[in-house]
Design goal:
The structure holds two protein chains of two kinds. Chain A is built from 13 helices and 14 strands. In chain A, strand 10, helix 9 and strand 11 form a beta-alpha-beta unit. Chain A has two domains: about 170 residues, 3-Layer(aba) Sandwich (Rossmann fold), CATH 3.40.50; about 130 residues, Rossmann fold. Helix content of chain A is about 40%, strand content about 20%. In chain A, the strands form three sheets. A seven-stranded mixed beta sheet of chain A has the order 3-2-4-5-7-6-12, with helices on both faces. A five-stranded mixed beta sheet of chain A has the order 9-11-10-13-14, with helices on both faces. Chain A has a two-stranded antiparallel ribbon with strand order 1-8. By secondary structure, chain A is an alpha/beta fold. Chain B has one domain: Thiamin diphosphate (ThDP)-binding fold, Pyr/PP domains (Rossmann fold). Chain B has nine helices and seven strands; from the N terminus they run ααβααβαβββααβαβα. A five-stranded parallel beta sheet of chain B has the order 1-2-3-7-6, with helices on both faces. In chain B, strands 4-5 form a two-stranded antiparallel ribbon. In chain B, helix 2 packs parallel to helix 3 and helix 2 packs across helix 8. Classes of the chains: A alpha/beta, B alpha/beta. At the A-B interface, helix 4 and helix 6 of A face helix 4 and helix 5 of B.
């Protein structure tokens, strides 16, 4: 897989393109123009750019007010702060009030691995999945980021788009198409299914290739939309066999927990939910090493696959 | 409407909201009565709104940041014809849209509020957006004084003056009481006017029950390049002697006897309006 742009950079470049065509598009940030890669937008469209200072609650509230008067606001800031400090504004001003605010939450999960728990957001999917009225989307590469942004810009409903920090390998071809709320099948398979989201998708693809060499046929599903979850895709996977989920998030309330609730209710199958542990904060360190430590990578997926098939 | 008619209208709104609270056996009585004159001056004199077209593009925007004082707003919206007055009988009933806080499924309500400290950020965003589009609509928000302890208010206060939003007016219902008691005991708000001035706002202080003062201030062209804070000195429970200045009437509900006494007092106020 060739390395492409970081998802945040792909998002902001495309947002600048969209903003040139539609002057109602407005980008807000909270002293995070650099962290979010929003410079390209701010430089090209200074009259459509709003700096609010380090004040995430006001940032979301203002975005809701901007939407109320017909603007199309995009809030771009780190996931850790938006999804915790400004959670009530997201819940009330955006989701409950049904304001067309799109939130680009950058450096999600443990992207800021070495900076510690203040900067981690391993709770955001769980928190936002429990709030009705806002979609949660985790793209995995630049192609998907741009495609999902275009799809979201075409509607008037709230969304939280969580991306990481690092440049990402390109998983999809340039013509790939996506529907918000509908999972994408990346690899067919007959023995088991790996369901991944966000930046774990490339690990799932690599694991599936490794497993193929061992004679294990692993289907790969990219669950790019976490809310609403594509339950049909999960239950279809359960028809094939065991399921492994992998996510850069707490094991509580995210992809794995939500998928397991569905399979337990409708079609119980052996599962492994690879995620950050529920006991204690994630170990701090460069994110690649943290992923390896918790088995959130190709090797962790392959181990889980072998165990599941051995147990069968 | 002239001042006399506006004062009479405010009496009518107090009557309606007390009846609504009595029937529902629920409501935030004290703060609704303290803000009734402010809302009356806004809705019957200052705001450009069209009940037949709640989403009219040229309307002025109003956000009730102290969302719990929704009763007066509902009675006014019904009286103006945004929705049928009979619906007031459903206030706080199972499945109603007239819940105990503003909800924008109700015609005339812009935003869902109720969690405190949100209205000024929303209004700041509205005012900023209108300026960006060079539209002349105005934005008004009504906040409680106890609410000003929320930090997000001051984030918004900073942003509104930073962006010179002179199309924004924030009104503070300064009744000096919150649910637990005197605001100055719970968390001191004074020197309130100095605080807003220090944040870059033009500050006006007036009697929030003086209809002439309210109307004159709302009609005045505000100073350029600064948002306006109106600190309206009010009485919690205003208009009903038994409720005035008592924190327990924050969300007290009158019994039949007290309701009758309230109606007699309001009748007298109407005659002297």
């Amino acid at each position: 897989m060739a390395t492409g742009l970081s998802c945040r950079e792909a998002f902001c470049r495309e947002l600048a393109e969209l903003g040139r065509k539609n002057p109602e598009i407005v980008a807000l940030t909270s002293d995070a123009k650099g962290s979010t890669s929003l410079g390209v937008f701010a430089n090209a469209l200074p009259d459509q750019f709003i700096e609010v200072g380090i004040a995430e609650q006001n940032e979301i509230g203002m975005a809701a007010g901007l939407a109320a008067v017909g603007k199309r606001p995009y809030v771009c800031a780190p996931a850790s702060f938006l999804s915790a400090r400004a959670l009530e504004q997201i819940k009330v001003d955006v989701a409950y009030s049904r304001m067309n605010v799109k939130i680009l939450a950058v450096s999600g999960g443990i992207s800021y691995g070495a900076l510690g728990a203040t900067h981690h957001s391993s709770h955001d999917v769980a928190a936002l999945r429990a709030i009705p009225g806002i979609r949660v989307v985790l793209p995995c590469d630049e192609i998907q980021t741009v495609a999902l942004l275009r799809a979201l810009e075409a509607d008037d409903e709230p969304a939280y788009i969580r991306v990481g920090k690092a440049a990402m390998p390109i998983v999809y071809g340039p013509e790939a198409e996506f529907t918000v709320g509908k999972a994408s099948r990346l690899r067919p398979g007959t023995d088991l299914t790996i369901i991944a989201c966000g930046e774990m998708v490339r690990q799932a693809v690599e694991a599936s290739e490794q497993l193929a060499g061992e004679g294990i046929s692993a289907q790969v599903i990219d669950m790019h939309t976490l809310s609403p979850l594509d339950g049909e895709a999960i239950l279809a996977a359960a028809e094939i066999g065991p399921i492994i989920t992998i996510e850069e998030h707490s094991v509580n309330g995210g992809l794995g927990a939500s998928a397991a609730r569905l399979t337990a209710t409708h079609r119980p199958v052996p599962m492994r939910t690879l995620a950050l542990p529920e006991t204690g904060n994630a170990v701090a360190g460069p994110s690649g090493e943290v992923f390896r430590h918790y088995g959130l990578d190709r090797d962790g997926l392959c181990r889980a696959a072998r165990e599941l098939l051995k147990a069968r | 409407m002239d001042l006399r008619e506006l004062r009479g209208k405010a009496v009518g709104i107090r009557r309606d909201l007390l009846n609504m609270i009595y029937k529902a056996k629920a409501g935030h009585t004290g703060g609704s009565l303290s803000s009734t004159d402010i809302l009356t001056a806004l809705y019957y004199d200052a705001l450009r709104v069209d009940p037949a077209n709640p989403h009219w593009r040229d309307r002025d925007y109003f956000v009730l940041s102290k969302g719990h004082s929704v009763e007066g707003l509902f009675c006014i919206l019904a009286d103006k014809g945004f929705f049928d007055k009979a619906e007031l009988n459903t206030f706080c009933r199972f499945g109603t849209r007239l819940i105990g806080h503003p909800n924008n499924r109700i015609p005339g309500v812009e935003m869902n509020t109720g969690a405190l400290g949100h209205g000024l950020s929303i209004s700041t965003g509205m005012a900023k957006g209108l300026k960006m589009s060079r539209r002349s609509n105005r934005v008004y928000t009504l906040m409680g004084d106890g609410e000003l302890a929320e930090g997000s208010i001051w984030e918004a206060a900073m942003a509104a003056s930073h962006y010179k939003l002179d199309n924004l007016t924030a009104i503070i219902d300064r009744n000096r009481l919150q649910i637990s008691g005197d605001t100055e005991t719970v968390m001191a708000q004074e020197p309130l006017a100095d605080r807003w001035r220090a944040f870059g706002w033009q500050v006006v202080q007036l009697d929030g029950h003086d209809m002439a003062a309210l109307v004159a201030e709302f009609r005045r062209e505000p100073a350029r390049d600064k948002p306006r804070a109106i600190i309206a000195r009010t009485v919690k429970g205003k208009g009903v002697r038994e409720m005035e200045n008592l924190p327990r009437w924050h969300h007290g509900v009158p019994d039949a006897e007290l309701l009758a006494s309230a109606m007699r007092q309001l009748d007298a106020q109407e005659r002297s309006a």
